[in-house]
C-alpha cells in the first residue's frame, strides 16, 4: 500500500487506509489541510472587510478608494494573524521573515483590489459587490503566496500542510 492510500486518522493512532477511513477521519484530514483552513479564515476576513467597508461607506465622506484602503489594511492585519497561527501553522517561524515576504504580497493584492473595484464601480456595480468580486479573483493568488512563499517555513515536513 502506498502512502498516497493512507490518511492520518487524527486520533494519534497513525495513518489508516483511505478506503477504510471513516467519516470522522476524512473530516479531520480535510480540516488539517491548509486550504480548508485558509478558506474558512478568508471568509472571516472577507466578512470583516465588507463590514468595515459598509460602515465607512455609510458613515464617512471618504471616496470609495479610500474606504477600500482602510478596510483592506485592517483586514490584512487580521488575515496575517489568522493565517499565520491557524491556517498555515506558521507561528513557529520567524515573524520578520514572514512579514518581509508578506508585504510585497499585500502590495500586489492591494493594487489588484483597487484596480478591480475602480473598474467594476465605473461599470456601475455597487461598491460592496465590486469588492466581493475582487476578493474572489485574488483568492487563488493569496493562497498560493501564503502557502509557498509567505509561510514557506510551514510546508510539509516543517509543520502542517
Descriptive overview:
- The structure is a single chain.
- The chain has about 160 residues and is mostly helical.
- The protein is about 70% helix and about 5% strand.
- The protein is built from five helices and two strands, in the order E-E-H-H-H-H-H.
- It has helices at about 25-30, 35-60, 65-85, 95-120, 125-150, and strands at about 5-10, 15.
- It has a two-stranded antiparallel sheet.
- Residues about 1-15 have low confidence and may be disordered.
Rough shape? globular
- Terminal CA distance: 22 Å
Largest sheet: 2 strands, antiparallel
Summarize the helix and strand pattern as letters. EEHHHHH
**Roughly what percent helix?**
55-70%
Keywords, separated by commas or semicolons:
two-stranded antiparallel sheet, globular, mainly alpha, 161 residues, 2 strands
Amino acid at each position: 500500500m502506498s502512502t498516497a492510500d493512507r490518511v492520518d486518522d487524527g486520533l494519534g493512532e497513525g495513518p489508516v487506509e483511505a478506503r477504510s477511513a471513516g467519516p470522522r477521519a476524512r473530516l479531520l484530514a480535510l480540516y488539517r489541510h491548509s486550504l480548508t483552513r485558509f478558506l474558512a479564515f478568508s471568509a472571516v476576513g472577507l466578512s470583516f472587510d465588507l463590514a468595515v467597508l459598509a460602515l465607512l461607506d455609510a458613515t464617512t465622506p471618504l471616496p470609495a478608494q479610500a474606504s477600500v484602503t482602510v478596510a483592506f489594511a485592517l483586514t490584512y492585519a487580521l488575515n496575517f494573524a489568522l493565517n499565520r497561527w491557524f491556517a498555515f501553522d506558521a507561528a513557529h517561524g520567524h515573524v520578520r521573515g514572514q512579514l518581509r515576504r508578506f508585504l510585497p504580497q499585500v502590495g500586489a493584492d492591494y493594487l489588484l483590489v483597487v484596480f478591480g473595484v475602480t473598474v467594476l464601480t465605473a461599470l456601475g456595480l455597487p461598491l460592496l459587490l465590486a469588492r466581493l468580486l475582487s476578493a474572489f479573483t485574488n483568492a487563488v493568488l493569496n493562497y498560493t503566496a501564503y502557502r509557498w512563499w509567505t509561510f514557506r517555513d510551514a510546508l510539509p515536513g516543517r509543520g502542517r500542510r
